[in-house]
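FIELD: query
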Amino acid sequence: MSATKRPPAKYQPKGITILHEDKDVIVVEKPCGLLTMGTDRDKTRTVHTIVNEYVRKGDPRSRNRAYIVHRLDRDTSGILILAKSEAAKIFLQGHWEETDKRYLTIVHGRLMPKAGTISSYLAENSAFTVYSTPDPALGKLSHTEYTVLKEIKDFSLLEIHLLTGRKHQIRVHLSEKGNPVVGDRKYGKGNDGCSNLALHARSISFTHPVSGRRQTFETAVPDFFTRLVGNVPN
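FIELD: result
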């Protein structure tokens, strides 16, 4: 499966990094601070608008467009998949449970046990805050698998295997466990001195919607992670 021909440099997307592109999918790395797509309350520049401009090669009349398959929170960095057709989007979303999603995060404190799965029903209140509820009628069952990779000072570096993909799931589960994500001003310790949220979508493995092949992509560890905890184990 060959990659499509890249457009001229002036049409390369500004603000995101393309990790892979073919005629059906685009895999990008999103920086911290950029929305995946616009909302009714926020119409700022997003990954979706940037990639749409890119696939249209500068022609606003082009019928080419990008389709959002999944989202990352604004302050979460890392890998996103976008589809180039509605059929590819539907396939990827239909096979989402088979998609392997791994994150790196740095949290406050130390976890016991050193590996496990956090499960709860997650709901959202009128202030757009997500929380766990004992009532399965109110929330959606959510599972976050974690492994401690490294402990240094008051921080723990974790690998997260995201088994379900609810809004703010990782942040809420770790906060409620007593180990909020570093830099999380919504669910964490307020201003803890870290300007970035220490949550990074490091790798993704999925079945290609046309070739049927399993494809895996991984990103580098953000610089501020190594500033906080040193080298990150593979």
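FIELD: remark
Residues 9-229 form a domain with the Pseudouridine synthase fold (CATH 3.30.2350.10).
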